[in-house]
Amino acid sequence: MSVFTTTAYTTDKLTLGQRRVMLAAVDADGRLPDGANQRVLNNISESWARTDAAAGGRFLTAEGCAALAPLGRFSLLVRANPETGSLPGTTGHSDMLALVRDGLAVLQDSEGRPVPVADRWERGNSLRITERGRRLVGMPLTAPPFAERHPVGSWAMWKREGEPARPVQILGWPLADGTVRVLPSGTRLSYASSMERPVPAEQLHPALQASMTTVPNRSDDRRKMMTDRTPEPTLDDELEALRGLAAAVVKPMTPSAETWEQVKALEERATEGYELAERFTEFDQRATADRRAPKAWGISRELSEEQIAAELERRPELQALGGFVATLAQLGMAPWQMANLVRKVRAHHEAGTDES
Questions:
Q1: Under 8 Å CB-to-CB from 315, ≥6 apart: which residues?
Q2: What pTM did the predictor assign?
Q3: Among 123, 119, 10, 153, which Cα is nearest to 68's?
């Protein structure tokens, strides 16, 4: 059986005939059908399907699979829950249409019956990976022995040579390349270190179950498990993370590229774009309710005596406020705003004195 990976990236578009033949190859363990239209077969380059003289046929390559499922869609399929087949709730509309069109995913109601894509948003309907989709990304069709030791949602210890063991949550089954998607956990992890990632299955070992609190992981159907000791990230940390996400969304954009190339790059970052929008909404709600953050906005600063003294030396007009400098800072005013307020009050007072 061919091992599918998408380490390659391509912006070349498939014709309908090429797509049909290559999708049929996915169903046949990667082998292009011999009875396909010869002109279509001739137009499928060796980079997409390599000739294997020993096996007597042509087989899809990593680049060919990348052409069938660009990185964004491939990532969605890999993140499907292997037990239920459910795809992440952040699937974009264009990705959903493409996955359903190619038979890589199917839209079903709560009873498992296929429904048209127009009913995507009906309550109980969900997008699920198909057998073809599993074959494309190398996901097992049935539960492997690994699933008995490490069920989806369970905890394990990720042990790498020369590094301390780290607790992770199991998010899937081993793929054809031998990796398993996990979600690291810990109270001192950076944002980048806490993101879900693929790790070699042999590096995962059973872990004792601890008392956990289940917290919904945004719109995804998975659940993020956190210990009671895990603090919620501060708004300043979340703001920094949002900046990183925003940079990642626009990174593939090349200003000098053709319009269709830019559009394609954005489409393939749709998942990251939806995640950025959702996290910013959560961030905005928290920031609205919390008067003390984020500090980067200059809101609700707790000024020390040294900081107050430095501001008084920099802006002598603040002397008129006395102890109210700290109070106004807690209410969200920046020192320059306080100085402007004092100037306006003085100007108004002087104008009134001149008139009298």
A1: 335, 336, 338, 339
A2: 0.56
A3: 10
